[in-house]
Every structure is written in structure tokens, then in C-alpha cells.
Amino acid sequence: MPCRTLPPPCRGISNIAVIVRAVCDYFRAAGLQPFVFPAMGSHGAGTAEGQASVLAHYGITEATMGCPVQSRFDTTPLGLSDLGVETYAGNDALSSDAIFVVGRVKWHTSFNGGIESGLCKMLAVGLGKLDSASSTHRHGRQHGMEAVIRSVARHILGTGKVLGGLAILEDAHHNTAQVAALPAGGLIQREEALLATVKQWMPRLPVPEIDILIIDEIGKDISGTGMDLKIVNRNTRPARNPWPNTPKVGCIFARDLSANSYGNAIGIGATDVVHSRLIAKMDPHAGQVNAETSGSLALIRVPPHFPTDRECLELLAKNLGKACLEDATIVWIRNTLDLSSMVVSNNLSAQLSNNPNVEVTGPPFPVAFDESGQLVHWSQQ
After folding, report:
1. In a domain, 4, yes or no
2. Which of 5, 208, 214, 255 would staple 332 via disulfide (CB 3.0–4.6 Å)?
3. pTM, whole model, 2 decimals?
4. Dihedral of CA 313/315/316/317: which sign?
5. Which residues pair with 104 in a beta bridge?
6. Terminus-to-terminus CA distance in the chain, angstroms?
7. Strand ordering across the sheet containing 176-183
8. Is residue 381 classed as helix, strand or coil in its secondary structure?
């Protein structure tokens, strides 16, 4: 049964190139000479060229920004934070007179806290490239990631080098809902309040229990962990993470790797079976660098994989003790960033009929496989 939760989103940070250009124009109008640099930690396969490529993919280039875009990977140590964490900053950042960070404030897919993904994490993990990413994640295993991010962000802010930042908030459909300029003084406290707000807007699957979740694609452009682990309720660090109780998802089947993930298949380890096409698109090195840096080796473990959708789904039905696939409750989504449209099995229709946030968009139809055993996508039925 096809249904939707209203307008479709776009991927990544909506309007990011427009927003960064506006920031550049603001500083240029003030008589300054801005330049853009990535604060991505180990992303972009852990290279300066890879990070520049990521920026370019999102429309952030010298031509579109009207100012230089620098991407270097050399860093300078900035001493120890109050938790004893080694802190770093990229020399691209340190070559400036002042640093102004631009990023989205949202929940993190791997841990819970009052500070998760946002400007503080960019300062603590991203600013110092691979060195910062390695250091913060290493200490995060001892102290917890939120405590480490707070500690390192305080240390970086204490250098006086950071002017402030622009926090971007998105609604459940990934539309830009709010932007907020935060001065360096009070940045951490302001970000806490913004995160509390945006957590109320985050999308969720429409039913509390699912036997099989089919995901068309996972990828680094969809989530830092390939898929949003809070949406699918897969906790990779249970010792330090109070986690949502729902939804309860029995098995996850991932059908493909997004093109914009550039072979980084982190998150594959949170699935139970994948299509062989996903395996064929993997760049093991990219995923390994990401997993080693973040301490998430479990997320690159390769599950069983088969060349047809039918084989993958039949395996899961047997694993769940179902006599046939039709006995399972199934939700089929594009990815965890786009929950605006999906298909659910008919045995979930009663639950959806009482959900005011869900609109049924068409009559039921049987799940169909083509002659080669591949699913006929619901968008074509």
C-alpha cells in the first residue's frame, strides 16, 4: 500500500551552496576577504582532494562562492582540552584571521546528548581533519562522544580564533526551517537550545514494529552512518547511549549504495542482507578509513548478499520464521533521509489509518518481481 508523509526532501544540507555564498557575501561587504575550507574530519576518503570534491559536488567552488576555496590536510596541534584530548586545527583554518563555521544542527545517528551534530562537532571533529577525527573518536570511547565534543569545542573557542558560526535547522522534510547566527561566546549553550528544537522535527517511521525494512539505498550523503541509525533503531554503541525504544525493526535489507557516497559503504554492517550490486560499488578503503577513525568497525562488516531481491527477501522471511513473505510486516523506503513516500504491507493498514501524519496515496498492489528476480519498484506500479 503506497503512502506518504507529505512533501519530498532533497539530500545533504538543503540550500547549502546558497547559504555559504550568502555568508561569503556578508563578509565581503564588510570589507573582508573570505575563503572557504572544509571542516570534515576524515570524510572525502581522508584526503584534501577528496574533501574539495565533496564541496564541489554540493556546489561550493571558487566560481560559485566568488572567493577562494582551500582544502589542505596539514594541521597544527593546539594543546590538550580539559579532558586531556589532543586538539588540532587545519592550517587552512589557521591561515585566516578568524574562523566562522557554517553547518546543520541535528541529532547524531550514533549517540544521544544535549550536543550532537552541529557547529560544536565541526569545531571538535572536523576542523582538525583526520587528526581531530582520530583523537576525538579515540577519547570518545572512554568519555563518551558528547563529553569529548564539548571539551574540545570549549578549547577551540578559548583560543579566540573563532568568530562564531551559522547554524542551519531543517524540518522533517529537509527544508531549511531556520538559520541562526551564533557568536563564539555562548555558542555551546545556544546550540543546545537549537538541538532541542530540531529533535522535535525529525522524521520517523510511521509504525512501531516492522519485520522487514527495505531500503533502496544507503550512503554517506544520506547519513554519516550510511543510514540514520536512530530512524531504523540500530544502536552500535549501546554501553553509552540511551536509545529510542521504537521502532522495533526485525531485519534490514539494503538494495544499493548511493552514487554520491563515492564507494563508502559504512552502515552496511547495520543491515542483515544486501543486494550484490551494493557490494560491487563498495570502495573498501573509503569505508575502512571512516570506520577506523570513528571507532565503528561493526558498521563495515559485510552481511550476506545475493544477486536478486527475491533471494534477499526469502532469506529474511525464513530468518524471521515466516512461512512466506506475505506473512511479514514490511516497510519499503527510498532511504532514511527521504521518508516522504513509502510502501507498507497491507497487514499494517489498520495502524496507518489512525495516523494523522500519514496519507494513503493509492490502492493496495502486490509486490512484484521481474523475470530475473528483481523487485519492480513501487514508483513504477
Report:
1. no
2. 214
3. 0.74
4. positive
5. 168
6. 11
7. 99-104, 162-170, 176-183
8. coil
